[in-house]
Amino acid sequence: MKSLKVLVTATNYAMYCVEAKRLLESNGVEVIENPHGRPLIREELLEAVKDIDGAVVGVDTWDDEIFQHAAKLKAMARFGVGVDNIDLESAKRRGIIVTNAKGLNSDAVAEHAIGLIFSCLRCIPSLNASIRVGRWDRFMGQSIMGMTVGLIGFGDIAQKTAKKLNGFNVEIVAYDLYPNLEKAEELGVVILPMDEVLKRADIVSMHLPILRETHHIMNDTTFGVMKDGSYFINTARGALVDEKALCRALKSNKLRAAATDVFEQEPVDFSNPLFGLSNFIATPHTAAETYAVYENVGLLTAQALLDIFKGIEPRNRMN
Asked: Model pTM greater than 0.90?
C-alpha cells in the first residue's frame, strides 16, 4: 500500500486507541492527530484536510466546503454511530466512502443514560459539590421503583437501556416510528404513540436520531404533554431538543429535573441559561467514552479505512 495520511479528529486517540493507531501505522499509514482535546473548529478542519486520504471523524462538521478542500480524501470512519455531522450525499458525489461504528457504544451510552436518571432522582452531583465545600445538606430523593420510564426511540441503545432498567422494578413504555415489536415483547416494553409515552412516563429518555423531522421534537408543546414534576434525559443528540423550551420547563417546575450529555452547540456556550438552573445536570458528550468503547471503536474504524484503501467493502458503510 502506498504511503497514506489519515486525520483523526476524535480526541485522545494515541492514549486510548493504541492498537488502532499501531494497525494503521503497520500498514504504512501516517496518523495525524487532533491536538486540541476538543472538536476541531471550521478553520482548523479546513486546514487539516488538505492532504489527507482518510479520516477518523469525531463530532466535527464535514460538509461540501470541507470536502472541496480535501481533494485526496477517499475514506471516512465515524468514531461513533451518528453521522448527522457528515454530509453523506456530498461525500458520495465526491467518491468518499463513509462508515460508522454501529453497535459498539450502545452499552456505554445506555449505562450513562441510567446514571443520569439516578443523578436526577437522588441529586447526586449537587450533594457531591455541597459536601466538598463543608456543607452537610439533606435531600429527599425519589425511588425509581414503581415509576414509568418512557423511551423516545427504540433502537439498539434504547433496547439496552430497557434491558438494564428491568432490574429496577419499573414499567417501560416506548415510542418508535418503526418499532421492533419482537424485541419489545422480549424486554417487556409497551410500544405506544409518542404523546402517550410522554403522558404516562415519570422519566423520559431520548434515543432518536437527528433527522429533519426530529429536529426540536422536544419543544414547548411536547414538554407540555409530560407529567408535572417528571424527569427528562438526553444522551442522543442535542438538536432533538429546543433548549429554550427545556429551560422554560425547568424554570416553571413542569420538569422536576433534567440531565443531558448533548447540546445543539458543542463545545457549549457557557452563557447558556440552562447552566444557571440547579435542577439541570450536564455532562460534556461523554456517554460513549469508556476504555472498552475506545479500544473497540478504534480498531473497527482503523480496519474500515484500511479496507476502503484496499478496495474491500468495509463494515457499516453509510453511503
From this structure: no
